[in-house]
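From the pipeline queue, job 12 of 40. The input is one protein chain; the requested action is below.

Action: predict structure.
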Amino acid sequence: MAEGDRRRGQASLELVAGLPALLLAGAIGFQLLAAGYALTLADGAAEAGALAGVAGRDPEEAVREALPGWAEDRVAVEAQGGSVRVELRPPSPLPSVGRWLAVSSRAWVRPPESGR
């Protein structure tokens, strides 16, 4: 076998061996970006829910309106007094990973003082 054939075979083997590692690194990076995006969405939704509660609207409805459609079945909302807690699972190809990377955010608004 010629020297050039061996080098080409070596490069092909390195490509085949390295491709899964590259794909795994890309998937992990995408998953971390999705978790960061979910945290940003949860922050805004919690704030919207707290403000809606002070305004006399349903906080849970306001939270759900503040989130995109994909988050519909991935969100849990707790509203009590002026406090709203939103837990959101980011999109993930593996549901267990999405549950493990769930993010939460809390917002609190002081009710306006009456008599002013």
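Job complete. The first strand starts at residue 75 and ends at 80.
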